[in-house]
Every structure is written in structure tokens, then in C-alpha cells.
Write a structure and sequence with these properties.
Blueprint (H helix, E strand, L loop, with lengths): L1 H23 L5 H25 L6 H31 L3 H5 L3 H9 L10 H34 L1
């Protein structure tokens, strides 16, 4: 019962978030795309929670939401990785984004012998997309869990 909600909610949230990732490729729309992706993760969690609760799992909304959020985050992350070369080509460069990184991150890369200015390539954009995806699915799971919690609280 919960698995059906996790799969359907995760797929719905992931496809919606991937569509917003595609919107984020356009440089001026990137500012609006990330909050919409977060809303899509929460929507996937809410949908999974509602499906799980309607299927008879009275206390499975939060768990279903977290599972759906993770699935949505992975789908969104893979879409973001696939779209990052196109985003780099449309933007022309990502040097401004690299300069806005917090100082401890810049120092960490420097201690590893990595010059961040050398990551101003298509490969660098894919590298940063993979780094975000490796953490993004965890964040998406937490946001999905909140959506599932909302679904469960509204059902009670």
C-alpha cells in the first residue's frame, strides 16, 4: 500500500521537478526554477502520503512522503546532470557562480590542489551538478517527508 504511494508520488514529483529543471536552463528563469523544484518535491511527498493513507496505511504518510521525495530528488538530479552542459552553453560561463561559493569551500578545493577557475568548463558544470545531486536527494527526501506529514495531518 505504501509502496504504491511512494512510487506514484515520487514519479509525479520527479517529473514535475525535472520539468522545472528544464525551465531553469534558461538563464533568466533559473532564479525561479529552484523554488519550484522544492515545491515539486513537497508535492510528490504530499501525493504519496495521500495515496498511502487512502490505501489504508493510517500512519504511513510521513514515510511514504520521504520515500517519494527521495525518488523525486534522484529523478530531478539526473535531469539536472543531463541538462547542465546545455545550461553552461546557454549561460556562456559559470565563473560568477564559482566566485560566489563560500570561502571555506574555495579553501578546501585549493587545499586539494584544485583551481576553481579551471572548472569553468562543461565538465565543471557537470561536476557541480553531480555534487548537488549527491546531496539534493537527501534534501528532497526531507521536503517530501514534510509533504507527507501535511497529507497525514490533513487526513486525521
Amino acid at each position: 500500500m505504501i509502496a504504491k504511494g511512494i512510487f506514484r508520488g515520487g514519479l509525479a514529483g520527479g517529473l514535475l521537478a525535472a520539468a522545472f529543471s528544464a525551465l531553469g536552463v534558461i538563464p533568466i528563469c533559473g532564479f525561479f526554477a529552484f523554488p519550484l523544484r522544492i515545491a515539486a518535491w513537497a508535492f510528490g511527498g504530499y501525493l504519496a502520503g495521500r495515496i498511502a493513507i487512502n490505501s489504508g496505511a493510517r500512519s504511513g504518510g510521513v514515510a511514504a512522503g520521504m520515500g517519494a521525495g527521495v525518488i523525486a530528488g534522484v529523478i530531478d538530479g539526473v535531469a539536472n546532470i543531463l541538462l547542465s552542459p546545455l545550461a553552461f552553453k546557454l549561460a556562456g560561463h559559470q565563473i560568477e557562480g564559482l566566485l560566489l561559493l563560500p570561502e571555506p569551500i574555495v579553501k578546501y578545493f585549493a587545499s586539494l590542489g584544485v583551481d576553481l577557475m579551471q572548472l569553468n568548463t562543461v565538465g565543471g558544470s557537470v561536476f557541480f551538478a553531480v555534487m548537488f545531486c549527491s546531496v539534493g536527494w537527501l534534501i528532497a527526501g526531507l521536503i517530501g517527508m514534510l509533504g507527507g506529514g501535511v497529507a497525514q495531518s490533513l487526513a486525521e
